[in-house]
Design a protein that fits this description.
With about 425 residues, the protein is mostly beta strands. It is about 5% helix and about 55% strand.
Length: about 425
Amino acid sequence: MKPLPKLILLASLGAATLAAQVALLPDPTPVSAAVNSELPSWLRFSGEERARTEYIQGEGFKPVGDLYLLNRLRLNMDVRAAGWLRFSFQAEDARVFGQNTLPAPATQKDAMDLRVGYVEIGGPESVATLRAGRQSLDFGDGRLVADPNWSNVGRTFDAARLTLRHRRLKLDLFTGAVVKIDPVGFDLPAPGGHFHGAYGSLGGLVPGAVIEPYVFWRLDHNYRSETGRPGNLDEKTVGYRWAGKLPEAFDYTAEMAAQAGSWAGDRIAAWMGRWIVGHTFVVPGQPRLFLEYARASGDPNPTDRRHATFDPLFPVPHDVYGLTDLFFSQNIVQLRPAVQFSLRPNLRLTAAYDDFRLASARDGLYVAGRIAARSLDGAAGAHIGQEADLQARWTVGPATEFTIGCGHLFPGRFLRSTTAGVPYNLVFLNLAQRF
């Protein structure tokens, strides 16, 4: 299909979906509230339907574009068998329409499947809570471990998680394996992969702040050393996140992590860090200005048997390193000033500027976790480029949210030297309706 008819078709689908959802607004109560009022108190249903149109130009930094429609349906059922015993299930059907890539990648398509299914012993305020089964793992800001809601599929683990609480202290202990998406079959854990960890939350030690120390242990098979020798991954990540508020409406966040272990026999020595300072103005719209600096190590020598590129683990990809969602915490340096403000109580705008550089000019540029471009001698320099982002989030009703955004990456010297140097553009319209 030619681009213009394809654009008209997908825009029509998106407009029809929007019209159908807005038609639900006269009733401010989600559908699930009406349904659940007729059911016993121990049984609850809910769900979400989401549609998003994405237009991309400059894939692979080449003159290549794509336009497609993402659709995701999630259906939830909670069974409260007792005050201390709960069963939770979520079915998901994720589809993509009109995309050039065939078959659709597992990040965008997962035919009706069991996404969540676990038993929970203990309540949210219990001293100890045990959750076992297929579940999400979300910690901190999601830079390292999270279930990315923006993803059309998301991420879950077959895991056991024990949460211990005492006043303002909390400790999560977990062990499990990430679930591998099968677009046409039942999703199963990735073979040979194991993920263990402990994540703490220490409130009250510093006024107005929370300190979150953590350790993650990742084990996996079928990795390659720098010399190409096959082997296993045995990787430990140790770090902390510290976030809080200061006088005069200032806030801050700092996070650092280091990695050690073995990558198919090569020694791991990598790290990442990010630092944010913000200020909220006490005026109409409550604009918040913030400045973020982030750095994740790269590997300056691909033959020294030392793996120095940071492994981002299982992060949230959306709007972390720019709205185009190209980069993770791998061999990258980011400087990001941004502003957030509300035009109305239910309409929030965000504008941001990003400057990207390679942490090591001799390592590659990683896009979606894989090397997209590289200059082994470092002659292409380290400047990846700049990105301008703008997005608006409109809370139409108590259960309806509409988001529109665009991001434009201006190629720097590195991209112009190692690729075709075409700018990367992303435009999206996203509608989520809970029921």
